[in-house]
Structure formats: C-alpha cells, structure tokens
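Record 1 of the preview.
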Amino acid sequence: MPIQRLNHAVLYVRDVERSVAFYQEALGFRVVNAFPGAAFLQAAGSSNDHDLGLFQIGGQAGPSEAGRSTVGLYHLAWEVDTLAELQRIAEKLSETGALVGASDHSTTKALYAKDPDGIEFEVSWLVPADLLTEEIIAGRARIRPLDLAKEQERFGAQTRGGVGVSV
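->
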C-alpha cells in the first residue's frame, strides 16, 4: 500500500503555551489534547486525529541550525481550499509579524512564515488539475513573487484548489 499523505508533524518548541497561542491565532488550529509540556493541535478543516504535536524543551533551547550547519527539516506545508483563504491567512500572518515571504511557483501559490521559535512553515493553494495548462506547468521552472489579487482575478477567489495534487 502506498503512503497516502502526511498525518501529523511534531515540533520541539521553547514554550508550548506560546506556540499553541500562535498556531491558534495565525492558522486557526484547535487543541485536541494537552498535558504539561505538550499539546496536540488539529487544523480546522482536518480529519486527522491531530495535525501538529508540540513538545516543550524550554527557553534555553538554541535556534535550529537545519539548513545552515546541520541537516534537518526545512519547513512544513499546509494547503488551503481557496485563494480567498490564502489571502485571509496572509493578512493574519502579516498582523502577527510572522510572514516572511510569498512565492508563485506557477502550479502552487505559497506563503512562508515563521512561528515564535523561528520554525518555518508554508501555507499554499494548488491550481486544480482541470485549470492546468502547458504554460502553467512550464512556469514551474522559475519562482516569481506572489500577487494574490492577480491570482484571485485569474482563478477566482473561491475556486477550490488541487487539494493535495494538481497534476
């Protein structure tokens, strides 16, 4: 049987309560289970038992060196259903000071942000398969700045994205 999808991710964080508050405010996650030093969160549109586990290791923890001086995870990526939702999340991430970038990968429209511990994550919308053209597929060869207003005009703010696969 092939792997179907990522069920959840687990992160080590300095302060669980701070991280829980961030993921609740920025992405609308909800706590489904918690105990001292740990919390398990579920995304609003998810059917997973939980999508994110957080384990506290304390304020003395140094920043992740993954990608700079050690191997490790670069980022997690979550999908949204519509460009309108991507816009709403972009605004929320900007308000919290977490948004660090936005890219147009042609078949994927992506926001990049960092949580309170500097752990990077992505929130993206995928062009649905029935809207893919040869031009869009060929466009994956380069990354451009994301213009959400232009993409909403092009694809529609409420068009449901590729939800996991766009080809």
